[in-house]
Design brief:
With 391 residues, the protein is mainly beta. It has a domain of 129 residues: Jelly Rolls, CATH 2.60.120. The protein is built from 1 helix and 28 strands. It has a 7-stranded antiparallel sheet with strand order 18-12-9-14-7-6-28, with no helix packed on it. Strands 5-24-23-27-20-19 form a 6-stranded antiparallel sheet, with no helix packed on it. The longest helix is centred in the last third of the chain and has 5 residues.
């Protein structure tokens, strides 16, 4: 997952002569991960993808650090951040507010107000975006995908892209993964197909559907992120000049509203909500669903200890059955080493309830997460005391 896809014009065989209307060759370009053994796609460009206009210091700016600063207070406690208060900023790539990170995965929030006037390539990480608010188009080397509120957008590393925003507010949760982000293995059969028990299917996955070919020369800026730095490069042609491509490596989208919740007579544990997996973490979707139907069921989750993981929840609407004091745009961190569960009164209040309208994105990391110093200005410092009392 994803499966084979193609767009545009292709030669019948790979690595063979493929000429443009003027008689010259199109430039073949293999893109994929894990060397030559992982998923890959083969693109055919009008111009060489390697043609940087000038490699001199004057044309390619010196790299600068883009890493988050850690919170100096390492005391273990429950954390809550009002990310709805993150201010608007211009760029969806350069103006992200770091929130949590470790050596395998990071999370940030951004509220872009404009489409970037440059293109972007993340060379160090896969990116999983969750559009909590907003709509637009993902432009990429592989074509375009229309986006709307509630979409997950998976952009594998190395793919040049740009987010073109519609008018109105936009709010994006960004997850960056050093490892390959994929659908959960237990949902797929030995051939890679999503099985009948999976909470979504290939029909729900939206691939690039249009391939505009930009036959343009000039100066085109591509910002490349790699190794904790951002480098400005300048191409002598538009980066979206592929006339065709095929393969298994491309961006794709999945709406959280197309996730079909799994329910039971008694409370189901978080793995039933799993949507993606990475190296060292999983991502889950909590969606509107019927509650447990046993006559004595307690729909609220039982208390539990994260014996080997940190639990992060981003609240995508104003409802969540086991929490109070959180709302749209909130993000909570329940770290490894501390038991957590429903706040006082929430278990009793859930008994007899038939359904929930909650919407949330959960990330469970199997290594401890560090809070970014930049997120502290949005923290609710009283959150850890919200379990006190009997109400």
């Amino acid at each position: 997952m994803p499966n084979y896809h193609s767009l545009g014009n292709l030669p019948r065989k790979r690595h063979t002569v493929f000429r443009n209307p003027s008689g010259g060759l199109y430039y073949e370009h293999l893109m994929g991960n894990k060397g030559f053994t992982g998923p890959a796609s083969l693109l055919y460009h009008i111009r060489r993808p390697t043609s940087i206009l000038d490699n001199s210091v004057e044309r390619v700016e010196a790299p600068f650090s883009t890493g988050p600063e850690p919170d100096p207070n390492l005391a273990l406690r429950m954390r809550h951040f009002h990310l709805a208060e993150v201010p608007k900023s211009k760029s969806s790539t350069l103006d992200r507010t770091p929130v949590l990170f470790n050596r395998e995965v990071s999370m940030s929030m951004v509220r872009p107000t404009a489409t970037d006037d440059f293109f972007y390539r993340n060379g160090r990480a896969d990116e999983l975006l969750y559009l909590a608010e907003g709509s637009g188009v993902l432009e990429s080397q592989m074509g375009e995908i229309d986006l709307k509120t509630g979409d997950y957008v998976l952009i594998p590393r190395g793919i040049v892209h740009r987010l073109r925003w519609d008018a109105g507010d936009s709010r994006v949760l960004v997850i960056e993964s050093v490892g390959y982000i994929r659908t959960p293995k237990r949902y797929r059969n030995e051939f890679g197909q999503l099985m009948e028990h999976a909470p979504f299917s290939e029909r729900d996955v939206r691939k690039p559907s249009r391939l505009p070919v930009h036959d343009e020369t000039g100066e085109f800026v591509v910002m490349v992120r790699q190794g904790g730095v951002l480098t400005k490069t300048l191409l002598d042609h538009h980066p979206f000049d592929a006339v065709g491509w095929d393969g298994y490596y491309y961006p794709w989208a999945l709406s959280i509203h197309d996730f079909e919740p799994i329910v039971g007579s008694l409370h189901q544990p978080p793995p039933v909500h799993q949507t993606f997996e990475g190296d060292g973490f999983v991502v889950c979707s909590f969606c509107p669903r019927l509650f447990d139907f046993h006559p004595d069921a307690i729909p609220a989750p039982y208390n539990h200890s994260n014996a080997d993981s940190d639990e992060v929840l981003f609240y995508a609407n104003n409802e969540f059955m086991s929490r109070k004091g959180v709302g749209f745009g909130s993000l909570t961190l329940h770290p490894d080493g501390l038991p957590h569960g429903p706040q006082p009164g929430r278990m009793e209040a859930s008994i007899g309830k038939k359904e929930t309208k909650e919407l949330a994105v959960m990330l469970d990391s199997f290594r401890p997460l560090t809070v970014a110093k930049q997120a502290l200005k949005f923290e609710d410092e009283s959150y850890s005391k919200s379990w006190l009392g009997d109400a």
